[in-house]
Design a protein that fits this description.
By secondary structure, the protein is mainly alpha-helical. It has eight helices and two strands, in the order ααββαααααα. A two-stranded antiparallel ribbon has the order 1-2. α4 packs antiparallel against α5 (150-158) and α7 (182-198) runs antiparallel to α8.
Length: 216
């Protein structure tokens, strides 16, 4: 019976009475000293001071539980917010990485395009230059402008074919100059400036002479 009474709640008096009476009934009948107890009933009373103290303790317990629930929910919301921010940051970094990788691939593709397809063929390089002027975005080459003359464009490109005379001469001069010393290149420019001047192009001759001085 002491165990049943010890587990009772002061604020649940009627439930406590039922628990204690049930514990007593389980012990009946009781015999001793010529007396036999066949029935018993316990009625509990709680003084005001004890009840008030119990109510205060319950309110404090409930308030603490509510505060703990509020704190736990706030912590859960904060954790969820941090996870969301972390996910957004991961997505942003992944997108930046993908954009960087795309930019590197585009730069590499453009470099290969210029080196393999254009610089190897002066005509292709010239055509690319003419078309790119009218292209808003580099990767998508547009056609010639509406007012362009297609025959003139063809003649322009044909003049840049690898077998064209000036292209062959330019290549020979390039290879020849590449093998000269700095002094030899300066002397060649001086000779070329004199030749240009003889043919009446004073302005170009002066520019060549100036270029000779800039090499020093």
């Amino acid at each position: 019976m002491d165990e049943a009474a010890g587990s009772c709640d002061v604020l649940r008096r009627h439930a406590a009475e039922q628990d204690i009476n049930a514990a007593l009934r389980a012990l009946l009948p009781l015999s001793g000293c010529g007396v036999e107890v066949l029935h018993s009933y316990v009625r509990l009373t709680i003084d005001d001071a004890t009840q008030k103290a119990a109510l205060l303790a319950e309110r404090m317990r409930q308030g603490y539980a509510l505060e703990e629930t509020r704190r736990r929910r706030e912590q859960e919301r904060e954790d969820a917010r941090r996870r969301e921010e972390h996910t957004r940051e991961e997505d942003r970094l992944r997108r930046e990485y993908e954009l960087d990788a795309l930019a590197r691939r585009q730069a590499r593709a453009r470099s290969d395009f210029l080196r393999i397809d254009l610089l190897a063929n002066p005509a292709s390089a010239r055509l690319y230059t003419l078309l790119e002027r009218h292209t808003e975005h580099w990767p998508r080459l547009g056609g010639p402008p509406a007012d362009a003359s297609l025959p003139d464009l063809v003649r322009e490109v044909q003049g840049w074919q690898p077998q064209a005379r000036w292209v062959v001469v330019a290549q020979l001069l390039h290879d020849f100059v590449a093998g000269l010393t700095e002094e030899g290149r300066k002397e060649l420019l001086t000779i070329l400036a004199k030749a240009v001047k003889v043919h009446g192009d004073e302005k170009t001759a002066q520019a060549l002479i100036k270029a000779t001085g800039e090499q020093e």
